[in-house]
Amino acid sequence: MPSHDPNRVIIFDTTLRDGEQSPGCSMSPPEKLRVAKALADLGVDVIEAGFPAASRGDWESVQTIAREVSGPVICGLARCNRDDIEKAYGAIKEAPRHRIHVFLATSAIHREHKLNMAKSEILKAAVEGVRLARSLVADVEFSPEDASHTELEFLAEVVSAVIAAGATTINVPDTVGYTTPQEFAEVFHYLKKHVAGIDQVVLSVHCHNDLGMAVANSLSAAGAGARQIECTINGIGERAGNCSLEEVVMALKTREAYYGLSTGIQTTRLYPTSRLVSTITGMPVPRNKAIVGENAFAHESGIHQHGMLKHHSTYEIMRPQDVGLARTNLVLGKHSGRHAFRDRVRELGYELDEADLNRAFDDFKALADKKKELFDGDIEALVLRAGGDGVGPWHIDALWTSATSGAAASAVVRLKHSDGRVVEQGATGDGPIDAAFKAIETATGTAVKLHSFEVRSVTEGEDAQGEAIVNVVHNERSYRGASISTNIIESSARAFLEVINRIQSSRPGARPAHAQLSAEAQTVQASV
After folding, report:
1. In angstroms, rounded to a whole number, what is the distance separating the alpha carbons of residues 83 and 335?
2. Residue 180, burial from CB neighbour count under 10 angstroms (0-12, 13-18, 19+)
3. How confident is the model over 113-171, as pLDDT tens digits?
4. Residue ranges of the alpha helices (H) in 69-142?
C-alpha cells in the first residue's frame, strides 16, 4: 500500500471478521473465500480475514484466503497473548503481504469489569504482544479496544509504548459507537500532539454504528489525520454494524475537493460486491440504503423527475454507473446465446469460471422458459447462486403441495441422498410451506426450531423470482438457508433443505470443506 502518499486513505475491510460476527451473518469457508476474492477485485488494501484463534475452522479459512487471494494485505486478528499471535501468524504467513492485528482493551470499564487488570498490567501486556507479533512479521497493527472510552492520558501512554515496541499501524476504535465526530477528531489531535513517534505510523479508525454515526466519525477521523479506515461491505457488523465501506468511500470520492483524500477502490465494483455479500449472508440491503440501495438512484417526485430530465446533477450527486449500477433493465430472452449471456454478466460486474458460467446459463435458459421478461435482477440472482457452494447430502427430486381454503394443506417431498437413497415423505401443515417444511424434517430425520422466515421479490413483474430466507435453531446454534425461484413454495423448500444440509454437514465426522464455523468460533469473538 502506498505509504508515500499522505493523501491516500488505506481501506481496511473487516467484513470477514467483524462483519461476520453480526448475528445470522456467519459464512462457510468457501463463501469467505468468494467474498475475499471479490474484495481483492474491489481494490481494498487490507482484508482482515478472520480471528484464527477462534476455532480450527476459522484458522483454516484465514489460511486458505492467505494462500489463494493476491493483492491486498491479508490480516489476522489476535489478542495480546502468545497463543493467539502464533496462531494468527501460522494462518497468514503464506500470504505475500501479511499483517498481525493485536488488540487489548484500555478503558476503565473494560479494565474493571472484563479484564480485571491494572493500567500497568495493560501496558505490559500490550507491549509484549506487539513485540512478539513484530518478531514474526514486519507489519503489526495495534488496537486499544474501547479507545473512545479511555482516558486520553492513558491512551497516549499505551500508544506511545506500542509504537516503541514496533507497531506500524495504530487503530483507534470507537468500539461501542459512543463518540461524536467533533469529539472523535479531538482524540486524534490529542494523540498527534502527545505521542512520540506518531508521525512514523499509520493512524487508523474503526467505528461502530450504535448511534448512526460510524461513517461520520470515520470521516472526521480522516480529516484529523487518520489514513486508514476500517469498514465492512453494507456496514454489517455486531449490534448496529460498522462503518459502511461503500458509503465512506463514495463520500471521499464525491467530496474529494473538500477532504483532499483518495482511495484505491474500484467504485464500479461496489454494487456487485454489495449484492454478493447480501446474498451470502442473507442480509437484504434496505431499499433506502445509501449508495447501493434500490432507491439510491430512484426518483418518484414529479419535481425531481422534471429536474433529472433537464440534467442528472439536479438531484444526483453521483452517477449510478460510478458504483456499478447499470441502468439497462430488460436484457435477455430465451433465444439469447451463451456469449450474450456472458457479456451481460460481465457488464453487471461479475466474473464466473467456466463451470459456474455453464451452471448459470443452464438456469437462465430454464428461467427464460418460465418468464416473459428477464431483468438485470434475474441475471444477478442466477449468477450469485451459481458461485455458491450449495453442496449437501440431500437434494429435492420432486415436490407436490396442495392447499384448500378452510382445510389443512398437504405436501409430499421426494428427496435424494448423496449415498443413493431416495426418501418420499408426506405431511400436513397450516399452509403448503409449513407442510413442506414438516415433510423435509421427517424425511431427513432432523428437527429444527424455525426462528424466522422471509420471502422477498428480487426482480419485478408478476412472474418475478422470489428469494426465500430461512433461519433456524438446532442444538442452540443458528443456521441460515436461502434459495431463489419463480415458485415461492419451491424456493422456500429448497432454502429449508439447505439449512438441513448445513446441520448434517457440521456434525462430528461429517464436516466437509463448506461446513459452517464451530460453536467455539461463534463464542470466541472480538469487538475491536
Report:
1. 59
2. middle
3. 999 999 999 999 999 999 999 999 999 999 999 999 999 999 999 999 999 999 999 99
4. 82-92, 108-110, 119-136
CA distance 415 to 504: 15
For residue 3 the three cell numbers come to 505509504
DSSP calls for 226-285 = --EEEEBGGG--STT-B-BHHHHHHHHHHTHHHH--B----GGGHHHHHHHHHHHHT-PP
Ramachandran region, residue 447 (left: φ > 0; alpha: ψ -120 to 50; beta: rest):
beta
Q: What are phi and psi of 408, to 5 degrees?
A: -65, 145
Least reliable range by pLDDT among 149-158, 223-232, 372-381, 514-523: 514-523
Three-state SS for 456? strand
Q: Say if residues 278 and 38 touch (Cβ distance below 8 Å).
A: no
pLDDT for 279:
86
Q: Of the candidates 517, 116, 44, 6, which has an alpha carbon nearest to the alpha carbon of residue 264?
A: 44
CATH 3.30.160.270 fits 394-505, yes or no: yes
The enclosing H or E element of 50 equals: strand 46-50
> Taking the domains of the chain in order of start, what are their residue ranges?
10-281, 394-505
- What does the block give as the cell for 20? 461476520
Neighbours of 523 (CB within 10 A): 9
CATH code at 10-281: 3.20.20.70
Angle 256-262-268 (CA atoms, 0-180°, nearest 5)?
95
Residue 328 has pLDDT above 60, yes or no: no
pTM: 0.79
Q: Quick one: which of 175, 158, 167 has its CA closest to 210?
A: 175
C-alpha cell at 264: 484505491
Rounded Cα distance between 268 and 416, Å, is 42
The dihedral formed by the CA atoms of 321, 324, 325 and 331, expressed in degrees to the nearest 10: 100
501-508 long-range contacts, CB within 8 A, separation 24+: 501/391, 501/392, 501/393, 501/394, 502/28, 502/392, 503/446, 503/448, 503/474, 503/479, 504/392, 504/393, 504/394, 504/444, 504/446, 505/392, 505/393
Question: Looking at the DSSP assignment, which residues form a beta bridge with residue 169?
Answer: 141, 202
Please tell me whether residue 394 adopts helix, strand or coil conformation.
Answer: strand
pLDDT tens string 380-389? 778 877 765 5
